Amino acid sequence: MLYFGVSLILFGSLGLLLYLVEQHLNVISDSRMKALFSERRSEFMALRDMMLSETNIFSVGDDNVNHFYLHHGMWQHDSDFCTEEQMLKTTGLSPERYRTYLELLSSVGAYRVVGKGIWGRSEEQVAIHIYREGLGVSGQTKNIIFSPIPPHNRYDMNGRLRVSYSKIEDGWFIEHTMD
User: What is the pLDDT of residues 137-158, one digit of tens each?
Assistant: First the structure.
């Protein structure tokens, strides 16, 4: 029985290791992100312009609008669940505009657009979330951001790089976060 338990642990560990290696190898390269931006520039501009024009909306994605998150087909805010129609009514986002956001996000291969000073961003910045991997508090993301002022790399208190930027063109950058 001990042999079976050890074998199960080893196979489980190997499976987890293979999963993590596969995820790491699937990180989208900066050159691919620059090509994506070049191919879909008008869609990125439209997402930026839509988010900057919002007065009450700061985050829109296939699983998120403002403080609402999609869980098992229902939208949740705090401990309350509601339908998509109720979520849109509460946030003030029209169904047509939400569909436009989703179509644009899909066309650029993104899952969320964020702006309006949320998550440490300035009021003028917009982040279009392209790639994510990891579990909870650890992992990495790659986003394409609009920022009229070039952002600076950020380091943690131990001097480790946590957020880096590379320029695509004036006002547009690739943001790579690592936890």
Answer: 678 889 999 999 999 998 889 8
Within a domain: 54: yes
Print the domain residue range for 135: 29-178
Query: What is the pLDDT averaged over residues 93-119?
Result: 93
Q: Tens digits of per-residue pLDDT, 110-124?
A: 999 999 776 666 678
Tell me if 73 is assigned to some domain.
yes
Burial of 18 (0-12, 13-18, 19+ CB in 10 A): exposed
Grouping H, G, I as helix, E, B as strand and the rest as coil, residue 139 is strand
Q: Looking at the 3D structure of the chain, how many domains does it have?
A: 1
Phi, psi of 113 (to 5 degrees): -125, 135
